[in-house]
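One-letter codes give the sequence; the fold follows as tokens. An example follows:
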Amino acid sequence: MIKKIVLVVVTLISGQIYSQENSASPYSFFGIGDAKFKGTNDIIAIGGLSVYSDSTHINVLNPASYANQMLTSIQVGGTSNFYRLNSGEESQKAQKTTFDYLVFGIPYSKKLGFSFGLLPQSSVGYRLINDQLSSGGYAYRYTGSGGVNKVYLGAGYQLNSKLSFGMDLQYLFGSIDAKTVLFLDNVQYSTREINNSNVTGVGLNFGLNYKSKLNDKINYLASLTFAPEMKLTSKNLRQISTIYYNGSGDELAAINRNIDLPNTKMILPTKISLGGGIGNRKWFLGADYTFKGTSGQVNRFENYTNVSYKNASKVAIGGFFIPKYDSYKSYFERITYKAGFRYENTGLVINNTSIRDKAVSAGFCFPITGSFSSLSIGAEWGVRGANTNGLVKENYFSVNIGLLFNDKWFKKNLYN
């Protein structure tokens, strides 16, 4: 049955999952956009911890978790994001609904497991419009869309009863469009510039998991993940147009000129995460610290005098509780209750102000009776940026839904 469900899910998602405008944040204007993937929905609900893993879920943040798999797993998730953007002078709302990921996990033996899937790496989606003419008699509109996606193939191996190791091979690809329109006072036509970047690159991600016992009832978990610096190639094209607007407000081009630009190199910085936690099958509490070497990052086409980068860091805390995971009498006792918190210094500095992102999360994992599959529903409330120094304060609320399918595939026949 699960194989039929998976076929339907893959068919629905394959044509949609990465053709979307996945962000409404003005901060996606910079670099290659917002860092999009924070983990599968069940992991987001506990703050996005890379340290946690078990035998029925795939924690893509740490490839060492692939070694723990007992069953073939498929995870798929989507999110509705609601934004309120406040500049201090005015406020606007925006909303985006997206498919987020499609992940497969396959156990090969008791010690070896594999995983592969499609994930968003970053997203771009902004509209910065100010139609008030400056003292020089001009005004600009900035819009952007697209993003960078990731295909990965990974393996995890149980080195001994306590330690497991894993590695992902990642291929990144995507297209980003950035459009600028210049309006001049008392001039019929406007000037439009569209910069397109087709981005590709290959990277690696390594992980270690350590699990031992504090006592007969409590386990101790520790993790380390390391992603070395990744170089991306951006093939760039620029189109300059003279445009006008018809009576319906549609943008029409009177003259187009395409300009080939040289390819550029971009860097995804080194990333290191350390995590630790304690718990058992009934409860878990853990924390992660992540460092990114973003201080050398640059924008795709221009360096702005009011924009710079410094190294980024993130702290996440989270956990879960199951009243009675093996209850036969009460379904509600088998529901998993989750919560988390994260605080992130993104490394982006605008007008001498560091852009920080902080959020709380909560969620529920509903087991599907008669199987090891489940439905996860969660929410995240967060704030990014500030409405001082000419910046925008971004309040966001996200509702996410994730499906986990678990089944026993590749069974050996007992009889020929």
